[in-house]
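Page 42, continued from yesterday. The earlier attempt failed because a stray header line got pasted into the input along with the sequence. Redoing it now with the clean sequence only.
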Amino acid sequence: MKKNLLLILSLILMANYVFAQDLITGVIKGSNGAPIPHATVVIRGTNISAIADNDGKFSIHSKQDLPFYLRVSSIGYKPQDFQILKLQDTPFELVLIESSQLDEIVVTSRRRSEVLQDVPIAITVIGGQAAENAGAFNVNRLKELVPSVQLYASNARNTTLNIRGLGSTFGLTNDGIDPGVGFYVDGVYQARPAATSTDFLDIEQIEILRGPQGTLFGKNTTAGAFNITTAKPTQIPTGKVELSFGNYNFIQAKTSVSGSVAKNLAARLSISGTQRDGTIWNTKEERKYSGQNNLGFKGQLYYTPSDKLQVLLSGDVSIQHPAGYPLVIAGVATTERSAYRQYAKIVSDLGYQQPKIDPFSREINTNTPWRHNQSIGGISVNVDYKIGNGTLTSTTAWRFWNWDPTNDRDFSELSALTKSQGNSRHDQYSQEIRYAGNLAEKVSGVIGVFFLGQNLKGLDQTEEVGKDQWRFVQTSNTGSQALYSTPGLLDGYGIKTNSTIKSLSAAVFAQVDWEFLNHLHILPGLRYTYDKKDVDYNRVTYGGLQTTDAALLALKAAVYSNQQFTTNVDNNNLSGNITLSYRPNPSLNAYGTFSTAYKPVGVNVGGLPTTSTGAADLSLAVVKPEYVQHYELGIKSRPFKGALVNVSAFNTDIKDYQTNVQSPQLGVNRGYLANAEKVNVKGLEVDGTYQLERFFTLNAALAYLDGKYVKFTNAPLPLEETGHTELVNGVATQVAFKDASGGRLPGISKWNISGGAEFSVPGNLATKAGRYFIAGDASYRSEYSSNPTPSSVLNVDGYSLFNARLGFKSDKFSAFIWSRNITNKNYYEQLQAAAGNSGLYAGVLGDPRTYGATLRYSF
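This time it went through. Structure tokens are written below.
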């Protein structure tokens, strides 16, 4: 018995000794020596963790072979790894550095990691977490945070993404034009504007560069670029789960997991899903529209066999099947056509009631279902290899886009333009190779080559009219025009278009940063670009009354006609920039830039206007390249602790500005591309941020923009001037164009303001330590033109939006309630004339007030 007791006592003592040998104790302090309570301590590569007490003290059992790492994190401090080389009897003292969210923002805009304030480019940076907290889960919602960004979308295809009012054509998208704003995700250029509509997946940081950036990025960018980076896989097992609920049955779920799958190989899988009921009610169909139904996947493999080599394989796909995005009737304008051709007269003659003009009742009565289905995704391989003091990078990618829509383009219960379907398939292949780094003691830079091949197909793209269309195209009820009332003449009459644009873009680009005198840097850059486009366009009519009567056939041909053409164009360009930057100390960076840029030749694949003989006007098949001269002065400063203030002033001149113009001809319902001889945009931007310890953050930004047509002598008539006549050789002649020189550019508000603030205090939620916070942001836009040619009707009134959130956040857990458009402001994002310019116009409505709650947990 005594022997047994002695044996048990010996085992207990031995176990206690071994257990004590594995026990690590310590205290966590800030840089000021004060203890940090409730910090999280994790043994890296395991699930073993501990929480520090109120005095910052912790204890944790290692059960690991030496050496190993402790990862320590706490809200408001930079996460830090501490290597444990040997165990000790005394407590470890671990010091965390307070996180300054302002002074050390690192960007990769110049293809290497640099502190934001050191880069002589106007850049706005939004962290992925900040975007999520503000409810900006795609680019469309992000525009409220950045005054210089404009995004207009009636659906994913018809998306205009501009910076400082420049970039893409305003209105319906024409596939034959290149965007002027580059959109990059993890170094991969995404050519289709629809990419901006997908939900963000695992976003780490969003950098918005303003002004031409062709000497830094593979694809030429005349207006600026979005440079988005996502989180990479980690060897340490990590994960995040987020769930949001809101009104309109909004539900959004996101999750990502990451960890090691083999030696030097890590993987990451991310999934996002968003659903929301529509906010617009169709009284005829008794169903809701303008909802959300998005699903996104992203997978990554990250191979790091050495400190020099990193290989990232990524694949992603986003699928969207929303309950379409209709436009609502916003008004009816009186045109300069005869009384017989006014919209009210046409509707009355067809036996319908006049349309209800009450857009913010959010009701429509269209008789064709709206559908805007798309899938978009791709695969990329990025290889980084360190050579000398820089990195050689190769980015290879393939991406695709499928678009399957249906639209009712008369926006009403009438059977006029009943169907508009621009089905498309896009494939792109890109390759970029560049070297970036320090080239000498005071010289750094980037040099690269870029290749982009695209194949964009229009697949049986359909425009179809119904039984009521005859009255819209009939100019009078006498003579041959009276025959338009022939029963069935235009019923189901339409066009099917198959087109192909094969394009090739290749470039060599370089930029260096040379500190040629103390604190004084010169940054020259050059770019050579070659572009080629091959177009095959074939449009065939179908349907309507089958007849051999020449008079009836002529009337049908005046509505839609066959069109076919092929063309191939190429051009090259040498452009560049030079910047002078003065950095006397870390708190000031003053710079001046002159740059030239170029946007390649465009081609019309949305139909061509016809000549007086009824033939397609082939002179409009190709539009000239766009040439940019840009001047900018800027100051980046840190005026006092915790504050950043940046100011930039710019002037941009564009020769042969590419614009999308509308025509009263139904056969070019989507508009067509044309050149305005010269435009100018100038402005002033001010943005600032202030952070007071961990308790208060404040940000504000202002952009003043003034954009005008310096010379546009052949602009299309605005809606209200349709039918305008002028005396030509003493004869009253109807004209289709006017001189819009001096008029303002569409989509540009003169005043754009945004700002936000967050206040937080320490506290506990149950046993979890963290911070309670209240935050809000606001944005304002003054009124702007919503038509390529200035109009007295198609103008969007200025509006303000307010958002707020309230909740609790800790190192691993967050819970908060939120509301967007908290005042339930009624506003338009865009106004658009109905096809044929009969007087009706419709609007894209901004979202009403939404509210909900979000739970987020990471491990």
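Notes: The first strand starts at residue 23 and ends at 30.
Reminder to self: strip header lines before submitting.
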